Amino acid sequence: MRRLRRLGGLVGVGVRRVAGRVRTSPIRLSLSTVGVALAVGLMVSVAGLSLGLASESVVASEDTDYWIVPEQSNVQSLAVSTGSVKLSRVHDASARIGADSRVDYALPVLLELVPIEDAVTGERTYIFVAGVVARPDAELLGLPLDPLAKGDPHYANGSYNGTWTGEAVLNDAAATSINASTGTTLDSRRLANRSFSVVNVSAGATSTALGTVPVAVVHLSELQAVTGSATGDQADQILVHTNDRSVKASLEGLYPRTTVVTRSGLGAQQVSTSNLPLALAVSSAATAVLVGVLFVATVMGLAVSDDRASLGALAAVGLSRRSRSVVVAVETVTVALMGGVLGLLLGVFGILGINAGGQEVFGLGTVARFDPRLVALAVAVALVIGVLGAVYPVLLSRRTNPLEVLSR
Question: What pTM did the predictor assign?
Answer without folding.
Answer: 0.54
